[in-house]
Amino acid sequence: MRSRRLYAIAKTLLSYGLDDLIPAKWLPWSIRIGRHALFWLPNRHKDKTPGMRLRLALEELGPVWVKFGQMLSTRRDLLPPEIAIELAYLQDRVAPFDGVAAKAIIEKSLGLVDISEQFADFDTIPLASASIAQVHTGTLWLANGERKDIVIKVIRPDIRRTIDADLELMEAFAAVMARHLPDGRRLKPKEVVKEYRKTLLDELDLSREAANAIQLKRNFEDSDLLYIPTVYSDYSRHNVMVMERIDGIPVSDVEVLKARGVDMKKLAERGVEVFFTQVFRDSFFHADMHPGNIFVAKDHPRNPRYIGIDFGIVGTLNREDKRYLAENFLAFFNRDYRKVAELHVDSGWVPQHTNIEEFESAIRTVCEPIFEKPLAEISFGHVLVNLFNTARRFEMEVQPQLVLLQKTLLYIEGLGRQLYPELDLWKTAKPFLERWMNEQLGWRAVVRSVKENAPYWAEKLPELPNLLFQSLDSQQHLQQQLEQQHKAQLRQQQQASTSSFWGVLAASGVVSTAWLTTESESMVWPITSAAITVIICTQAWRTRPRVDKH
User: Between the CA of residue 40 and those of 22, 33, 461, what are the distances in Å?
Assistant: First the structure.
């Protein structure tokens, strides 16, 4: 089966002429000969651009490769701009699997004899179908007798086998690329596939997605910005997730939103605020915010609220990354390119030997033209490509923890451009970041730190005398151990010195005995010398350094 799949992949790649994307001089002779041997698989799409050929080939290869292309579209540092932009158009066009099979999966996972025991009005025709799972509608009977309109997400049967097989082939291709491509070290194909494997396998576990949804809902409880549907975790498993059915308008239906009187400017600004709140307040953000996963609530059109779904991919940032990001954003907004360059060095994103003046000038060249323009005239994708190309000159490697953040920023760009092209992203984001930085560095940060640590301090305060005594006692014991070790070391040095002295005398005795034996006419002197040498050797043996077994 693996050989058949390998042939199908090779056939697809060659029929779209993707071998042309790699210069022949980069490939070993064996691969070049193998390509000529497959003369019956010519490029059948010479009229299309390289990016379009790659996109079409991935769509033909199936869902695993489509998702891989979607991930690559966010890595603008690895691909030429025209190819990355084309890959961003990839969509999951996957036929649904049999609804009766989905019903059987739900029954088995929840231990039901029949689905009607727990769900009424279950629709075997899926509401939506994607590469990894599909969604069905129904009604959930709660323990208190209530009925809730829900959706049930079901993982495709046998999808894990397909994913594992294709991932093995991807890893094999990545190893070949890393070994033979001149730019293989920078492109890091094996690391990219490893990162993709983790992301994809995480999406297969709906228990993880349910936990992500619960966390996001808690973060935005009673918020006017974002609503997260309720997950019914008692009825969810690793391959089944039951969630509240939402009634919203797809964010891509701009005409419908306008017809309902939605404040598009406020909606666009709240999209930016939702993103920065997730990243800088919560350090936990929805990292798959494409239009298909975002809706707008129908109530209160003048005070619009987003609804998010599909939480298989989330991102997190540690405190240091978050702080450096905020400082970088503020420095960009203030056009302080020197500060941006210094922050990159301080954070370790570029090497310490980087010439700050040259780096500052390069950043200014990329960023200065984009300021004081409405969003409609700014392409963040283009800016990111230029920034990555600039950073590459200064040996900057893309930070893995920031890849999802970059992807989400691109989604925010597209969302803002679609909803309100005149949106000034800089003016919308800058006050939020300045407020956040003040909270992190100002007196508010001190007060918050005291509040956060007060319970811990109160708990440990009664133990303080004991802790102090234990610390002093351990210091005393440590000092005694150090003194004993020092004395033992001095003894060993003395023993080594004494042993060396007797060893030198013993060697001299052996030499003297040998000389007297050959030169002396009487045997008295050699015998006397030999006797003395034996005595000296015995003393050298007795004074040899001994290894302490304790």
Answer: 20, 14, 80
- Residue 149's DSSP bridge partners are 139
pLDDT of residue 421: 82
109 is in an annotated binding site: no
What top-level class would CATH report for the domain 94-245?
A: alpha beta
pLDDT score for 305: 94
Using DSSP's 3-state secondary structure scheme, residue 465 falls into helix
* Residue 188 marked ligand-binding: no
Query: How far apart are the C-alpha atoms of 124 and 148, rounded to whole Å?
Result: 18
Provide the token pair at 173: 């291709």
Q: Is 134 annotated as belonging to a binding site?
A: yes
Amino acid type, 285: F
- For the chain, the domains span 1-90, 94-245, 250-443, 489-550
Active centre residues (catalytic): 288
Residue 130 in marked binding region:
yes
**Residues contacting residue 532 through CB under 8 Å, at least 6 positions apart:** 509
pTM summary value: 0.69
Residue 86 CA to residue 267 CA, distance in Å, equals 28
Q: For 350-390, what is each residue's pLDDT tens digit? A: 888 888 999 889 888 887 877 666 655 666 655 655 666 67
Q: What is the mean pLDDT of the chain?
A: 79
Q: What is the mean pLDDT of residues 446-452?
A: 63
Q: Which amino acid is at 340?
A: V
Q: What is the DSSP letter of 231?
A: B
